[in-house]
Amino acid sequence: MNRRALLHRALALGALAALPGCDYENPQNPDLADDFLHAMSWFNDRVQQALFNPHTLAPTFSPDQITQPPRFNAFYDISDAPVVDPATYQLELGGQISDKTPWTLQKLRTLRQESQITRLTCVEGWRVIGQWSGIRLADFLRRTGADTTCRYVSFKCADGYYSSIDMESALHPQTILALDFLGAPLTPPFGAPVRLRIPTKLGFKNPKSVTYLAVGNVYTGGYWEDQGYNWFSGS
Fold it and tell me: Which DSSP string do the residues of 134-184 spell out, in sequence order?
């Protein structure tokens, strides 16, 4: 058994052993279960972050393994996907970035593009394989003078979604600002005009229609994370 599998089993057994001690009905400790679950979630995040190797690549696949048709997923219906005009789009920058000049889609396309065929794993249990192309986030951060010693990179989106990732994951070579999907510009349901594609994390850590990117040391949470999902959420 590898150390990751062993650790997962140990954590599961530890959680099961502790749960019987939670007094869910004690009126003097109404938040005991919540406190325990938050503590376990925090612990899981720290363990996942400690196990993360920034030099280990996520699996890649061949074109014939791409999932067809592609699967849409969001916290809204496909008909409600935001439509952002690519002609007027600007990626706003904030936080510890020296050059905060907004980037147009046209300017983003002048940077070197990377392509990958990787798997997106949803927290709900399903998986799909797709082909994404875009700019390495590490290259973009260095190009804009971002302080890569900071802890977090955060994102805000046109659909109201928001998320944040750790800097090590942001600098991973497969983490990109995707502009294309399946060989064509992103469409609204799949995150047009720019989305984060990070195959080392679960799907909800891949925000769509990104309009704002910031670097800093203040934890900004995320749409699902603030509702109890694990923040690190490696896949």
Answer: EEEHHHHHHHTTB-TTSSEEEEEETTS-EEEEEHHHHTSTT-EEEEEETTE
Q: Is 194 exposed, middle or buried (0-12, 13-18, 19+ CB in 10 A)?
A: buried
User: 146-200, pLDDT tens digit by residue?
Assistant: 999 999 999 999 999 999 999 999 999 999 999 999 999 999 999 999 999 999 9
Chain segment 118-134, per-residue pLDDT in tens: 999 999 999 999 999 99
The number of angstroms, rounded, from the C-alpha of 199 to the middle of its chain's C-alpha atoms is: 8
Residue 129 bridge partners (DSSP): 119
Place of tokens 């014939």: 64
pTM of the model: 0.83
Residue 184 has phi, psi (to 5 degrees) of -140, 160
d(CA 94, CA 161) in angstroms, rounded, equals 17
CA distance 53 to 50: 8
The candidate with the shortest Cα–Cα distance to 181, out of 113, 97, 85, is 113
CB 187 within 8 A of CB 181: yes
